[in-house]
Specification:
- This protein is mainly α and 183 residues long.
- The protein has helices at 3-21, 23-49, 56-82, 85-115, 121-139, 143-169.
- Helix 3 runs antiparallel to helix 4.
């Protein structure tokens, strides 16, 4: 029996329940997690992407995107831990603007990499995800944003229940005295 599938289903359902019952703290956690991801993304841009091309414009775009990501990420992690509710809403809006700017800045970077013959599928997905994230984050401070969080929570609860049920349904059945013959 694969217990990790049960665990995954149960944890997914618990996260969904948390999203249903406590949408605002979930948004607060998401802002901090997005801040950490922005810091990591900026570091990756400096360490791995900027050296891919010798083009001065490309490197400048990489450095700008990396610096903005690291600064916004640090703000998303530090400021909300120090200030009240207003900071959360402000940081959500700031991160939404960052996501939009990041996607726009990454378009010429991806085009330069493509021109140099490097694969850009990952960057195209990141651009699309950044645009989508910006739209969702712009909606979060309003009441529709919390409705979206709660709908996502309900979907996660259902998905978690489905994962746990399928893990139970597809479990190994072991019979001690049974002999199975292939005829």
């Amino acid at each position: 029996m694969n217990n990790s599938n049960y665990f995954l289903g149960i944890m997914t359902a618990i996260v969904g329940l948390m999203m249903l019952l406590a949408a605002e703290p979930v948004v607060q956690v998401v802002v901090v997690v997005l801040g950490i991801s922005a810091i990591l993304s900026g570091g990756f841009m400096l360490a791995a992407v900027a050296p891919l091309s010798d083009d001065k414009t490309f490197k400048t775009q990489c450095y700008i995107r990396a610096a903005v990501g690291i600064v916004i990420g640090i703000l998303c992690v530090v400021i909300p831990l120090r200030v009240a509710q207003f900071a959360w809403q402000t940081m959500v809006c700031i991160f939404a603007v960052y996501s939009l700017a990041s996607a726009i800045l990454e378009i010429p970077i991806a085009l330069t990499l493509r021109r140099d013959g490097l694969p850009v599928k990952r960057y195209a997905i990141e651009i699309a995800a950044s645009f989508a994230l910006a739209v969702v984050l712009f909606l979060l401070p309003s009441s529709i944003g919390f409705t979206i969080i709660r709908i996502g929570g309900a979907a996660l609860m259902l998905a978690g229940a489905a994962i746990a049920f399928l893990a139970w349904k597809n479990r190994d059945i072991i019979a001690d005295d049974a002999i199975v013959r292939d005829e």
